[in-house]
Batch of 3 targets.
Target 1
Amino acid sequence: MKKYFLGIDLGSTTSKAIIIDDRDTIIGRGITNTRANYTVATEIARLEAIYNARFSILKMKLEDEIESKPEYKKYIKDVEAVFQYLQFKRRLDRLNVQFRDTIEETFSGEKRENISGYITRIVKEIGPSILDEYLNGSLGQKNQFFRDIVSEKYNKEVNLLSKEYFEPMMLVYDKSITHVENELTEYNFRELVYQSMELLNDKYAQIDESAPDETGVGFDGELNLLKGNYKHIYDSLKEHISFVSNLDIHISNMVGTGYGRALLPFPEKSIRSEILCHAFGAHAVFPNTRTVLDIGGQDTKAIQVDSHGLVTSFYMNDRCAAGCGRYLGYIADEFSISLNELGPLAIEATHEVNICSTCTVFAAAEIRELLNVGQKRSDILAGLHRAIVMRAMSLLARSGGVRNEFTFTGGVARNQAVLKYVSELVLKNYGNDIKINVHTDSIFMGALGGAMFARRSN
Amino acid sequence: MEKNIFTFGVDVGSSIIKAVLMSYSDNPFIIDKETEKIRKRNPGMVADQLIDQVLERNNIKYSDITYLATTGEGEMLQRKRGHFYSMTTHAKGGVFLNPGSLTVVDMGALYVRAIKINELGRVLDYKMTGQCASGSGQFIENISRYLGLAIEDVGATSLKSVTPETPSGICSVLAETDVINMVSRGISTPDIIKGIHLSIANKVVKLLSSLKATSPVALTGGMAMNIGMIQAVEELIQESKLNLEIRANADSIYAGAIGAALWGGFRHFKLTS
Amino acid sequence: MAKEVAKERSMIIQKEMITGHFKELGAAKETGKKVVYTFVPGNISELILSFGMLPVYPELNALQSGMRKKSGDYIRDAEQHGHSEDVCTYVKCDVGMMLNGNIGPTGEKIPKPDLLLLSYTGCFTFLKWFETLERLYPGVPVALLHTPYQEAHKITPEMTAYMVKQLKEEVIPKMEQVSGNKYDEEKLKSILRNSSKVEDFIVKIFDTTKHRPSPIDAYFAGVYYIGPINSGFRGTPEAVDYYAELYKEILTRIDKKLGPITPEGEMEEERFRLVVEGPPNWTHFREFWKLFYDMGAVIVASSYTKVGGVYDMGFRVNPDKPLESLAEYCMNCYTNLNLQQRVELLSKCITDYQADGFLVNSIKSCNSFSAGQLMIMQQLERKLEIPTGFIESDLVDPRYFSYSNIKNRLESFFQMLEQRKMILTRQ
Amino acid sequence: MLKEIVARCEELAFDLSFSRAREWKSQGKNRVVVGHLPVYFPREIIHAANGLAVGILGGGDRKLIIRGDAYYQSYICHIPRSIIELAIDKHFAGFDGFIFPSICDVMRNLSGMFQMMGEGKFVKYLDLPQNFQSHIGGTFYRYELQTVLNEVYKLNGIEVTPERLNHSIKLFNINRTLIRQLYDIRQEFPWKMTAADLYHIVRAGYVIPVEEHNEILESVVRLVMEERGDPMDKIRVLVMGAFCEQPPVGLIRTIELAGCYIVEDDFLLGARWIQGDIDTGSTDPLESITSAYLEKSTFSSSVYDIGNPKEVRLLNLIRQRKVDGVIFAAPSFCDPALLDHPILQKECNDKNVRFISFLYSENTGQFKVIKEQVGTFSDSIKLWDEPVLKANL
Ligand SMILES: Nc1ncnc2c1ncn2[C@@H]1O[C@H](COP(=O)(O)OP(=O)(O)O)[C@@H](O)[C@H]1O
Ligand SMILES: Nc1ncnc2c1ncn2[C@@H]1O[C@H](COP(=O)(O)OP(=O)(O)O)[C@@H](O)[C@H]1O
Ligand code: SF4
Ligand code: SF4
Ligand code: SF4
């Protein structure tokens, strides 16, 4: 039987799980936000990694077909998207129930009626629009969590309502969401994946019925390949999917790390410092790495490693979470945009506003003040991003500077503006020939390092 | 003083704007008052609307106002005649609301300011929190949001606590993580809220003791409307044997605006005499 | 809970010495003995003893308050009296203790000073400290002994001359005046003879960490070992006995191949050998120490045990030149060395005692130690390619001891050392 | 006209590449440039040795700290890290040596870091004596100064004769007198020139030859007397605690904007350290410099005040400058300044002098809280019509 290894990074903001095989190849990734109960978060991440692993194995099995037939690729991609949607849908249904309970216990009379009506409308609105975004948009790749996705839509709808309902509606949301986040919704992979395929078949059936030139917006050429063909693909995939659904993904060993690692139900020897894990993970992906910068939700670590991936020195902030990822979260909130829109907006700036405090709590006030004196949104954002990077630079300096190659990890590395300033300042101060690495999996480096330790100590 | 005049005080806070219309004389009194949340709008605009709203409601024209004074972040208002610094206004307003107070503590959204005054209401000494937002009202707002509590209910919830659980560090952000952790450990909401209140109250009491505050102490600002907060401060004062009597008033949140309106009247007569 | 560990004889002797000293202080009013407040680094206790006066070390009081968990309140009181949060907490702890009645570690009241002997070596805060004390004890004479810094990596004759002149014309006359006794050079010489014996022992004791396993912990236990020389006993016969006994005990441990004693008994396995720079934290001393011995980490040398004098580079007092000796002793204290000298001393320790890692405990209070530590660390890392670790805490301010942060960093540091060992041995 | 001079001075004062000093050095043979750190250093002796002593006062808010943090923990004041940053970025290239007068442990250890980094041809930690007896502390101080002169001699071979030194002293006497005059003018007519302008003018003197600075000062004194300016309803304050790490100019401006006139300060204390003139007629001028240090030094946190308590001296200053209140503004984590404050503040309390205190660092950019505090301070003195209790002094 094949051996798999699990690494769990229970971070302050997000919990990540990585599954690798016995050659250190990543085959499964799972991530969720740690707003909820730690155990639940870990479970969600782990289960997601296993689902993801099944899809990976499926893709590996079908490697040849996928190579030669793009429609296979498209089909699997769609299945995955619908699969994600169905997971989302289950939680949304759960949230809807919770909404009702909350309204019941909080409001009465006419108000209750009205709010209940609004909620019905909003929930009705959200479901289909999300399905559309999963299927035809790129929501699946956006790395957004349930809470973020829902709250974005919800806020939009609430803002359309009359002012007096703003507070109550927000309250309903705040009161309900935490419950749902704290619950583990288990899915049967097989069931869900079949359901996804049925749903897809319905969708494709529509294409079949459409006239040849009617494949309007959103229906691209790739999709066209599926036309008249999907049934065949469905049939040949069914067997494989059944196989991966039943496959026993045996985790031979696991290692936990991250901010909350002490709370993981793991034996002590399976718990590793996140500093070592981040460094080890980053080094595994980029073997020439000598300096690692990790900016997470509420800590920033600067780590120096040697040629073996061993940490030689490190420095991290503590006591004060100013200038970490959470700060960006608050800023996004204040600007009412989603986290992944922050960076692109900041990059548009023509100059950077000078930001004095990177204290998360003060962020909103400072932004308001700057907006009032007429500063542009993008310029303020640029300043905020730069301020974060300045703090990181200071930690880097304390850990021993930047040595070639430099790898940037953690959730914040996904933010293009932060990346831009980091690159600028690193190159300017530590030499233009420094190679800067960022990986699409950068947020998973800690979990990856953990999984690798798990493999090595097995 | 010959006759009564209208004065108006506007306190532009970081999240809430407070407006007070007063009749100023030897015995000044409040005619009307109102608050409005800024909620991501332009504070200047919100303040202007709020002023108009209050004037309209009382059938008074702007030109009838003898002195419109601002405080807080209100310097940018076009219609102001004068601006006073927050501690000056909170001292005045705090004593107006709680006569005889010798210390005023303004517990607002971002800062806590402790002001010591003498019998004449003169500011003697003061301390305020600085660059770190641990111990601010914003912090309570964030946590209560996470816990799904309306800010108005926070105080009452806190009173239900039996064994409060305080967050470990001072940082509000890290404390949030602590709170999440507490929730997952099954700590009850009242206990968490109380713990947060205690950690903020701790900052307040520290300010009071470093100021060597004198009793009675008036609490002002938005957090002074929070009964849980008042109680937490009282408990810690007792614990640290400071021997201070605490007072608060239902209109606490207006203290800055009231102070501004009062100083406006004072300046008017001083300038015209 | 820690199991009760059988006390070694040396521990008992030390305890008696300290208790005796505080008794004597407590009775100073009745016995008419004069009390001199002074500091540990550059303490010229021999001179104080030669006048028959009793020394008090405000820092040691602060340290003791820290260990007895009183410092938090004391510091708060001092801050209420206008002291800033930002400054050295030793000072604030001492001021707070004074404000609270000046009760010493044994419960006895510490008498007021008759003389403030400001021999300020290696730290400017001492100056400010005494300016503060001077105002708390108005009218008490102050004798100032300015110790020039070893800025040019050496002690020049002019520096010594400057100090000897201060001793002769400032310090000694004030001591004569306060004690009512004349300066007795012969007595001083005989005290110094004991000092030089003690100094020999100190060097031998701290050199035993050469052995594997190291029989002692040169930091956590080391701070106890330097107790007597730092608290006014350096030139006394008791000190000579104490160190002779201690040395004997350690030799036995070496014979038996025993590791250091910890509060929970003998350390089982020596896994890491460290050199530590910077003072320890006193408020959580036990927890702090436990973080080390639980991981099998033993400290084979530390700079902190050299604040009261550096002897391993060859310096000994010369009883024939008493005042010059005292001057040189002062100028030779660890924090009076310049950074380059500190690097050299530390790298000698690292090589001589075959350390696996170098750890800095950076103390928020103490600029004298802390300013420059990061550069020292970089230099050692570069020069010796030794893994380095860095933690932050404070001497006596409990607010600055974050157990979880320190644990997190230490854990990472030890895991890093372990991983390194594993990989390096595999190659 | 005055505006232009001030603008020029501002540019000079914050010219972190020290171009005027470099230029000066290149304009003659055997010239040396020696950097000195706060607070006081007798620049006369370098002048007499054909040198220019340049004051290094940190990078302020004009130097971004990237690598400086690698050298200092967060709980150490800011100035040493900006100085290190300047050093790493080669701002001191061409400097021949550095002098670190003894003021605190941070500066002391910075001297060691300069030594290890190999900055300049010599790095001298100048141990200012704390003993003020001429045959004890005085002798040692002379020896220390001589060491500096020996270092410079090794570089340019120029013998410092009594004539040369006396001449240099003369120039610096003029410099001190002119600065004193400016302070006196501001004391009487604080509205004629802002504190920030005065600050720039004095600070420019740290980085240019004294001859040039004297010219500037002379014109400024003349021009300021001609200024009219409108007196405003502000209180008069003394700012204390900023002798080493400099407050950002924004802070100085904020204080004056929030209703205060700064009529006395210790911002650039080194330039005003010696109070009065140094004797210029001696055959042993080094001795004159020494005895000026022993006898005519101002008070500061870096000197033990045996027999001459600083609180009494502060009170004298308050009286002389007729101030309404004192602002204790010290750099964060500056032990020397901060440990003085309780002593000085107690005296203020006892004598009914109003004061406030706050911390800053040289790159503070947010003055909101400070403005509010200073504003309230000025309000609290102005709005309540009680006479300020000067009578009690
Ligand atoms: N898609 C994204 N775009 C931009 N920033 C992101 C994105 N996803 C996460 N982040 C940032 O990453 C942070 C979380 O990083 P992470 O490394 O997971 O932290 P931790 O390990 O502390 O939980 C968030 O606070 C957020 O600022
Ligand atoms: N109705 C209320 N009950 C309890 N607390 C409240 C209430 N309204 C506001 N607050 C608290 O008061 C704070 C705002 O106080 P405020 O004095 O308006 O601040 P500022 O003037 O500094 O903006 C909020 O952060 C919140 O914690
Ligand atoms: S400044 Fe802000 S982020 Fe930092 S400790 Fe304070 S509250 Fe936390
Ligand atoms: S700064 Fe350091 S050496 Fe100086 S008094 Fe404080 S703890 Fe002692
Ligand atoms: S600011 Fe204070 S602590 Fe810092 S170097 Fe200057 S004198 Fe020393």
Target 2
Amino acid sequence: MIDVTAQYFAVFREQAGRNLETLTTSAATAEELYAEVSAKHGFADSVARCKVAINDELAAWTAPLAEGDVVLFFPPVAGG
Amino acid sequence: MIDVTAQYFAVFREQAGRNLETLTTSAATAEELYAEVSAKHGFADSVARCKVAINDELAAWTAPLAEGDVVLFFPPVAGG
Amino acid sequence: MSFEITDQRIDPEALKADLRHETAGACVSFEGWVRDHNDGEPVTALEYEAHASVANKEGLQILTEAVERFDLLAASGRHRVGRLEIGECAVWVGVSAAHRGAAFDACRYIIDQLKQRVPIWKKEYYRDGLSGWINCVTGTPFKARDTTS
Amino acid sequence: MSFEITDQRIDPEALKADLRHETAGACVSFEGWVRDHNDGEPVTALEYEAHASVANKEGLQILTEAVERFDLLAASGRHRVGRLEIGECAVWVGVSAAHRGAAFDACRYIIDQLKQRVPIWKKEYYRDGLSGWINCVTGTPFKARDTTS
């Protein structure tokens, strides 16, 4: 188990009711952590439509997680 | 024979050495008049690359000429 | 070449100064304006949110790609965040090139990529008091398609 | 919708006011700037000449075609005449639409058509003191191709 910080944006922040939370998790990848937090908060978008950043760098969903990582969950983007 | 006014622009004006001239001509169409003035002044562009206007309206090269017409000869355009 | 998330009004004329180049013959720019409707529904205002540092990095990456891919001399972009009213400029992209073909193609490439890749989110406010995050599945009012510009 | 030949500096920001519309989500504009070279030859200045009344009529006709052909809300254009220095704006085209695809396509259509159909001529001045009318066969220095933007 590792401790990571999950950070939420836009609709995810509204659905989670918070900007960020510290989680103790067995998730090995960003995708596994998303499965955990989306089940917890009811996020409905698939990873295919969302993006993830680890420590302020865009990352692949398959990226491994390390102790202390800050994982940013980005719902489907809509700039422009 | 009819009397018409030929008006020249850009390179045609420079080659003809004048803005306009009155011509007494047997030309029945704009294209025939162009053949006449291009031979006279050494205009080298073909009608396919040039345009003509009669009395300030763009016209087909096959447009018939009438007494008193002002015929504007436009060399190849190069706006932009 | 610069891309920035900003909470200030976008000034296209000032931004064009960055695109100046003696060999530049063509400048193409795109502005996304806040529309009064989306997918047939009346919109009264928009709110944009971004992750600024990731957005700035990804935006700059897109500009860099465009300069490499097309024959550009310069490229810049800005995206507003915060609450915007109808008619305000939400996003600006400008490019310069020797020839217009490259400028049109590159400007379009940049705005298409920005809309797909940069972490910016848009919440629409409707006349009936409801609001919705565009593109997101939420159960509450939402738009499945992004049809803003 | 307006098209005008002008001997005054073109002010894109002021012209964009004509493109404003509550349903407009996209604004695309093109500027043709005087380049310092053409076909490899250094250019020091340009002179544009036009037949204003025919040019204004034909320019407006092109804008009308674009509005009919694409899903535009508004379209405008200006073309300078007289002597221009390097970097100055010779031509401006701006369009607005609900969606950006139509705006890009229409803006490009308009500038392509303007360059082909509107009676405007361009004389280039070169560093060696010579000059030439672009696109014209004259015997003296000339450019066979228009490569300005």
Target 3
Amino acid sequence: MFVEVSPNDFRQQDLYDRLCAADNASRSGAVVTFTGRVRDYNAEGSIDGIELEYYPGMTEAALQQLLEQAQQRFLLSDAGIVHRVGRLPNHAQIVWVGTCAPHRKDAFNAASYIMDMLKQSVPIWKKEWANGAAQWVAATSTDSQAAMRWLKDTDESGA
Amino acid sequence: MFVEVSPNDFRQQDLYDRLCAADNASRSGAVVTFTGRVRDYNAEGSIDGIELEYYPGMTEAALQQLLEQAQQRFLLSDAGIVHRVGRLPNHAQIVWVGTCAPHRKDAFNAASYIMDMLKQSVPIWKKEWANGAAQWVAATSTDSQAAMRWLKDTDESGA
Amino acid sequence: MKVKFFAQIRELTGVEEIECDLPVPATIDGLREQLMARGANWQQALQTNVLCARNQTLCDGVTPVSADDEVAFFPPVTGG
Amino acid sequence: MKVKFFAQIRELTGVEEIECDLPVPATIDGLREQLMARGANWQQALQTNVLCARNQTLCDGVTPVSADDEVAFFPPVTGG
């Protein structure tokens, strides 16, 4: 398992190879990767890139906890998350999630689950740039406290 | 869209770059890839690689039709399938499916759908090797004729 | 017409591809009957669990065939 | 104790991190009240829609705090 938060761009091959490097991962039948990239528009119109702020230490710990939770919920051989922060132009890579599993359903479901949870419960905040000004993106979750509840207490995880 | 059937191995980065090369694909927010690899066991025990037979011409056409059907069913920017054939050792890459979409649900669902349909309805036949002998794998679908029905008539697709 | 065989069916018949005369009746099932008359191994190969394609499109037993068609017989698929 | 602010809350308070005395009562809510008394911008920043973490673990308003804790206030997350 690996988690990385950094301003640096990443290469697909490097992360795929890193995910599959572990012996049981290299033998798994299924590998799924998800890559999220900056869209050049939002509901109001075109945008000019984004800016991501994070909480060094807590963000990495939350991502690590998320991977552990995915491993309790699905039959995974290995999984990894890489998330970029800072100013990112349109179409840039933002986030990569990779999952290895004996069976493809687990690999697909785990990657999708990790992305859903990441979006609503990992300490990262997004600004969108447009016309030279940046605006914080409003959270979509109706109850953000509830959405993040799983991060409060590790004993509650994997229920 | 691209489809390729060949005995040759593939590199993740090459296929990812190829998928994202189209303008609308490069601007999409979400990219999902699935890679299937040879497992070193089956229900009976350990195996020593597989061998895949295909129907040159019909197999490529079926894969192409599958991509078109996925594009009618999900909001995709682009998609591709690469499938290897011939003798493949344990842990070798067998199949790659990549999907690009504005939103991640479409990318995930389309990749998962393509793999499900591919497994039950694209003309490829698998032998498993063990103890120096090869045995054809029995189809799991209870009604294989029905499973392949969508390939009969292109007008029925995307229903 | 050109007739192709794949996987178990190819191994049982012992051939990948043959040229056949137009069967009577001129349908997939007519062709299949004609082929099964060739011997026990042909009968075994084509008796059950067989899919067929006409000009690389999946088809039924009642599908008509003509002399310049390419027909294929194969077992249920197991790829991916 | 060390107190950190992120995103909108950081921008409204104008600080990333400050040192605070132990509040009375010594809870997250006590600390929040103490901070909101600093001025209108602090009140606006911490009034609604605020999550908090103690030692990098999400916590509630009633969670106790001690002098060597690291506390953080931030808005709902919008990452990925």
